[in-house]
Amino acid sequence: MKYVLVAACLYAPTSLVADVNAVVTDHILPAHAAFDEAGAALVTATAACDRPEMQAAYHAAFDAWMGASHIQFGPIEAQGLSLAIAFWPDPKNQTEKSLARLIAAEDPAVGDPLQFAEVSVAAQGLMALESLLFTEREESPYFCALAQAIAMHLAQSAASLNASWRGDHAQVLMRAGPQNAIYQSQAEAQRVIYTALSTGLEFLHDQRLGRPLGTFERPRPRRAEARRSERSQRNIVLSLHALEALATALADADIPETRAAFAEAIARADALDDPSLQGVADPARRFRIEVLQQAVGTVQRAVDEEIGAALGVRAGFNSLDGD
Amino acid sequence: MPSRRSFLAGLLASGMTAELSWADAGGPSHLSAAMTPGGDYVLVGLRPGGELAFSQPLPGRGHAAVAHPARPEAVAFARRPGTYALVIDCVSGAVLHALAAPAGHHFYGHGAFSADGTLLFTTENHIASGQGRVGVWAREDGYARVGGRPSGGIGPHEMLRLPGRKLLAVANGGILTRPETGREKLNLDIMRPNLTLMTEAGDITEQAALPDGLNRSSLRHIAGFADGSIACGFQWEGDPYDGPALVALYKDGSLRLLDSPEDAVRSLDAYVGSVAALSDGKIAVTSPRGGVVQVFDPTLGFLVQSLQADVCGVAASGGAGLATDGLGGVHHVGERLQRIGQHNLAFDNHLVAI
């Protein structure tokens, strides 16, 4: 497929600094295929409504989602599925409230996928499933029906994203150019992918780490992502791996600073031994999470300098100005 | 033989400026401040097709500009908290006048002309009291300062004259800042933003605000429709994941937030950078932080969004709207964004229709 890119670049304003084809074929497509597969397995696992079995399938699905969640453009944007797959951050506890409403009313929407697609997005997706499976709940028939409805909707979302990428979006992205309705140049396709990379790193730094860290005077351990299922740390590790894979696929040259910075951040994330990041409230353990956040900041700067600068998309003239 | 440009400059010098129109400045339909690759700052004119009509140097980073309704001159404002504004001849590039904020005041970066083009109004901070002011300058007197009056709140940001009316609208953002602390926000707990309408003589005719619980939503950017309604864009001073919808319509005396689904609200990252009242009656807002342009129907609410890194400037145009970004792109705003121009410039916050 390499020749497609070379041909496209004859008409592109920037030199060959980024490999859109590699991003699509080595990164985006496999990630969405894996998420699709995990979604189907989740549906199977909820059939018998066995909690440990469902919990294991939930973890596998969340693992798979972490491989694709930073790809926030294309089908997920067009179909508006981002929050329906993972409703987080959730400062107003909307997931709890929406689930409580469904359960109290024994809302029959759980029996019909079309109706369930219309309930609050906060009651859909991985975070709703986490709340259902990892808090004390009566395992009533409605509990089972709700778990099955959430699993079914997640699986449909995953299948729909995978089908859209495979169906035509992969080709649309790889065939950027003046005739392309979405990506009007190779440079634009590269910029969109780069934005996914930088936004993913920012989300990791500011939200996954920044939210629970809060301030030293006021740490917010309850704000850690997926803390009930004790996968806050795991999500950070998987997110770093996914973003590193995207950076590596996107850059067509060696990126030594970026590689070193990712290695450092991943080593620190791996070594945390704090699955739900509750150490943010413990001065002795908090320090290691702060250092990890700084290491992610180092990754952000390295990516900006080694990839962003080469693509002519260094961080925001306007977005950082503010007014 | 004198070039056209020096000939025109000569005309200017001899006081024949009244003969010139915007056509003499290359027929721009829009203005924007920008930065060149070398790090210099310019004011540029854009044609409806996205091409550059002119480019004139600025001494520092600009923010917004305002175009005279008839003459090819623009007032370019420094970035907040600036104390200068320049009146630029968009034909010759000459700086016709330099406006200095009066002692104890600074500009907020926006302004408007009176309907007859004789007066310029500017949003200002009276530093000692922290009260917002609207400064008044007389064009016929070489843009002499001729007065000032309350803006109706703290932190007035964008102001405009409603199309076809002698009525001014001011977005009082509600946030107190002081030059010695830069852009640090000093009153977030008690801020009270509002939209204030006043006559050109300064009489406040109407004021509107969001309900009390939303007082941390700072009204910063506005755009006026021909029917007198005003599109409003807010910036939420709180958790970006715990904020309200950020686009509202002021109509018939009340300010109403437009419906927007949660994921669309989150896409704005608590920040609306510019607002446009499009020529097809819809509203466009940008968020450079979210890297997104959203289009709203004034009745139905959110319609559609398009991703575009560092997009901020947006304004009405003949074909609905134009948007500009910090990477040099000029886009047609319709059902989706369509890139119609690419320049070696970083376009600054605001795109202004002439």
Overall residue-averaged pLDDT value of chain B: 92
H-E order of chain B:
HEEEEEEEEEEEEEEEEEEEHEEEEEEEEE
What is the CATH superfamily classification of the largest domain in chain A? Answer: M75 peptidase, HXXE motif
The SSE order of chain A reads HHHHHHHHHHHHH
| C-alpha termini separation of chain B | 32 Å
The residue-averaged pLDDT of chain A reads 92
Strand fraction of chain A: under 5%
- Most residues in contact, chain pair and counts: A-B, 30 and 36 residues
Distance between the termini of chain A: 45 Å
Tally of contiguous helical segments of chain A = 13
Annotation, overall tally of beta strands of chain A: 0
In terms of topology, how is this protein built?
The complex is a heterodimer of chains A (323) and B (354).
Chain A: H1 2-9, H2 20-46, H3 51-68, H4 75-79, H5 82-85, H6 94-105, H7 113-116, H8 125-134, H9 141-174, H10 186-213, H11 232-250, H12 256-270, H13 283-311
Helix pairs in contact in A: 2-3, 2-9, 2-11, 3-8, 3-11, 8-9, 10-11, 10-13, 11-12, 12-13
Chain B: H1 4-13, E1 30-35, E2 41-46, E3 52-58, E4 62-67, E5 73-78, E6 84-89, E7 95-100, E8 105-113, E9 119-126, E10 131-138, E11 144-150, E12 156-161, E13 167-172, E14 194-199, E15 204-208, E16 217-224, E17 230-236, E18 247-251, E19 254-257, H2 262-267, E20 274-277, E21 283-287, E22 292-297, E23 301-307, E24 311-317, E25 320-325, E26 329-333, E27 337-342, E28 346-353
Antiparallel strand pairs in B: 1-2, 1-28, 2-3, 4-5, 5-6, 6-7, 8-9, 9-10, 10-11, 12-13, 13-14, 14-15, 16-17, 17-18, 18-19, 20-21, 21-22, 22-23, 24-25, 25-26, 26-27
